[in-house]
Amino acid sequence: MRILSIETSCDDTSMAIVEVTEPKNLGRTPSVLVPHFKVLKNLVSSQTKIHSHWGGVVPNLAKREHLKNLPILWKRIMNKELRIKNKKSMIHNSKFVIPDLLAVTVGPGLEPSLWTGVEFAKKLSAELKIPLVGVNHLEGHLYSFLLPQKTVITNIQYLIPKNKKLPLKLVEELPKLEIGNWKLEFPAVALLVSGGHTILVVMKNLKTWKKIGETRDDAAGEAYDKVAKMMSLPYPGGPLIEKLAKKGNGKAIAFPRPMMREKNYEFSFSGLKTSVLYYLKSLVSHPERSEGSREESSVDSSVRQLSDFRMTAEQLSDVSASFQFAVIDVLTAKTIRAVREFGAKSVFLCGGVAANKTLRKELKKAANAAGAEFFAPDFEYNTDNAAMIAVAAYLQQKSRRKKYPLVADSGLTL
Ligand code: KG4
Ligand code: ZN
Predict the structure, then answer these.
(1) Which H/E stretch holds residue 373?
(2) 297 CB less than 6 Å from ligand 1?
(3) Contact between 9 and 114 (Cβ < 8 Å)
(4) CA 36 to ligand 2 center in whole angstroms
(5) Distance (Å, whole) CA 302 – CA 14
(6) Which of 341, 350, 342 has its CA nearest to residue 375?
(7) Residues lying with their CB under 5 A of ligand 2, a single-atom ion
(8) pLDDT digits (tens, 9 = 90+) for 396-412
(9) Which atom of ligand 1 is nearest to the CA of 383?
(10) Which ligand 1 atom is nearest residue 237's CA?
């Protein structure tokens, strides 16, 4: 089955084609053979540079860019060997294999952005004469750890010594090897950390899962972005704070770990953000604390915006490292609490913040220590992309969960 997918929920325009090969026992527990998802194309057109200037995503600018980018990506999806028969038609390429299903993100996200994707998908579905399904962006993130597919060669006959000439029949068989038997152990705990959400989910199998907790205020990614803004760093703040944190001391400032010890699966990052703000204000009112190194930050000074108070490189790094240490402590503690309570055998980490290497390392270490295997998607599938929307569309088709109407729904949740 071939799925064409479209993602325009925020500031990335993305289009993908994913080919799915079905395994036999998709729903069985505890060990589940996963379907094989082969990403044929995953095009992402980022608007970061445009929004970075404004310190956050501007909805109408995002909509304008999506409107411009969608037809461009669609042309690229169909390859260059286009033979344009009818200029009004969206289908130009006679060699293009028509997908079986079209999937589009319907929410959550920015309403103007979501609508551009939904309207474009409706037109495309009519042109291609294929069914269109609405996808929850958060389900896309949730399943993104399935990308890219692991290849597991289980059949011993394929383990041929290097120098041995392979029989022709076997050479013909080789491409099929990609369809590996990747087994996942359930139950699993998934931590979804993005710019808009911080959610913990317990999964009974790939089709059945339950949200057990989420943030009461700011999402983890949002906290990264706001703390970065306080330090006059451009949007998005996550990658820059991660970079600065590498040179800093995570124990330099004892920022709070909100709700870490509470026996629930809720999060709160707004208090932590406020603590960082108070700390930064204390630096301004006590300039003697800034007497350390005056060397400019390793972050290119051209990407920093102007502010009245210029932090030293050391201060930027220490605040970043101490803030990040607090965020990772909380995320790890809550996830491991869930692993223990639900007897999870796997931990899945997904969403934009999952691109953070320190978080991946610490959570993997903690999950393994608690007896669970750790999975995270390849970096290109952490932040918003359409390939994960195709995966979610496929698994939605296979489940009895409610279908989403083809209407932009900015407040959709898991
Ligand atoms: O999933 P995503 O692309 O969009 C949403 O659905 O929100 O996540 C974007 C968020 C932003 O807040 C960004 O700062 C954060 O992910 N992020 C990171 C890193 N890369 C992106 N946060 C921490 N460390 C990173 N390396
Ligand atoms: Zn996202």
Answers:
(1) strand 373-375
(2) no
(3) yes
(4) 23
(5) 28
(6) 350
(7) 194, 384
(8) 998 888 899 999 999 99
(9) 3
(10) 14
CA–CA distance, 349 with 385 (Å, rounded to integer): 16
Return the structure tokens found at 350. 């997904």
* CA-nearest residue, atom 10 of ligand 1: 195
Measured distance CA(299)–CA(6) in Å, rounded: 34
- In this predicted structure, the answer to whether residue 76 has a pLDDT above a threshold of 50 is yes
Whole-angstrom CA distances from 190 to 29, 114, 163, 237, 338 are: 16, 25, 43, 23, 10
Mean per-residue pLDDT over the chain, rounded: 85
Q: Give the confidence band of 296 by pLDDT, cuts at 50, 70, 90.
A: very low
For range 23-35, the mean pLDDT = 61
- Calculate the CA dihedral of residues 112, 118, 121, 123 and round it to 10 degrees: -80
Residue 11 Cα, ligand 2 centroid: separation in angstroms?
Answer: 10
Model confidence, pTM: 0.85
Nearest to 334 by CA among 251, 219, 242, 214: 214
pLDDT band at 348 (very low <50, low <70, confident <90, very high): very high
Q: List Cα–Cα distances, 15 to 8, 33, 110, in angstroms.
A: 9, 27, 18
Ligand 1 nearest-atom number relative to CA 219: 12
